[in-house]
Amino acid sequence: MPPVLEVPVFSAAAAKVAVEHGATRLEVNRAGSYAAGGLTPTLAEVEAIADAVPVPLRIMIRPRRPQVEQADFLYTDDEFQQMRRELAAFVASGLLQHDRGDGFVFGILKENSTGRLGVDIERNRELVQAARPYACAFHRAFDLVLGDAAAADKRHAESALAAIRECGFSGVLTAGGPGSRGALDHAAMLKELVSTAITAGTNAPCLEIIVGGGVRSSNVRTLAAQVLRGSNKARHAVSFHSSCLVDSAAAILLGAEGEGVSGEEVEQIGRTLASV
């Protein structure tokens, strides 16, 4: 089996295109929130997608856009309670299917005394428990935890993954490092994360490493080769996440406002992953 190809979508139309062309999981976000990195969708938006596709859904739980004056994924008590309410509403809605593999994606950070960002274990664990029986993946907030020195700081990365596991997450979405550099630039760290997830999973369920951040048909073969390196265990621990957006000119013609999915891009990535 090829690795999972997860595509973030912002409408039922985009979800349909993604699945018809080979996406094997969808991350569901509020319409119009791509520029913000994805925000919590409405129940109506999830309902429209849940009724239209057979693949697993991962619902984004993110209460607001990034704020310039502070690091992202640091939430107030009011924002945390909003996340709790939104997650509880989805769990109670009957829209999600555990057997299909539906779940959630979110991430809450905290700042330590030195100003370094870390995983807020208590609040993340509370949301993971509230989401049961649905799986939860930690958002790309993880890249901020890794920090600018991530490529040279293996022990810190191992500690960060241990915190994710302690919260009860089943996976983590990551580019392997922060900033505008994509997953291909952080391939060495991603390989370390996969190795750590496999090793730690010998006595517990293996964390899924969801590789995302600039994943495109033009680079996914190289990226997969570097991250997987021919390991069968790695193939079972790694998924790939790509927006597969239509280009800007096509988006204007389609009225997609930059959030339309390119079926051709989905197909190309899917074919490549099936062949690595």
From TrEMBL:
SUPFAM superfamilies on file: CutC-like (SSF110395)
Gene3D superfamilies: Copper homeostasis (CutC) domain (3.20.20.380)
Pfam families named among the record's database cross-references: CutC (PF03932)
Family: Belongs to the CutC family.
Protein name in the entry: Copper homeostasis protein cutC homolog
